[in-house]
């Protein structure tokens, strides 16, 4: 998908794109460039549509080969408990492909019932999957994946995989 039916000059389009990346409002960018504010707003909307379209296409990608799985917790207060037991935290599950592709999704919790369906949907069978030693990943052993656990107590990060201790 590309931006089409745009009467703005290419130079103005490039400047608007630069302002969009710099998080300048459309109205302020229009003032700077001397164009009508509605033109800038419409162009920003078209940029968002292109981004949305490309993200939708990328979300359908299925990973194969060596991939890493990990969950993280975001939000909540810093005081008190950390990790899985902390209240008010959002669980984000991530899949990393060795070529730098990443897929993340917010899940209800870090139990296998939440993680396994995402894993089966996004990773091809017979792929090599690296995880930490969280028990939620136990079912990967019988789910058609070649599963390797990294024990963070024994090694901070092994050479071939990049599972980090957080």
From TrEMBL:
<protein>
    <submittedName>
        <fullName>Transposase and inactivated derivatives</fullName>
    </submittedName>
</protein>
<dbReference type="InterPro" id="IPR024445">
    <property type="entry name" value="Tnp_ISXO2-like"/>
</dbReference>
<dbReference type="InterPro" id="IPR053164">
    <property type="entry name" value="IS1016-like_transposase"/>
</dbReference>
<feature type="domain" description="ISXO2-like transposase">
    <location>
        <begin position="62"/>
        <end position="161"/>
    </location>
</feature>
<dbReference type="Pfam" id="PF12762">
    <property type="entry name" value="DDE_Tnp_IS1595"/>
</dbReference>
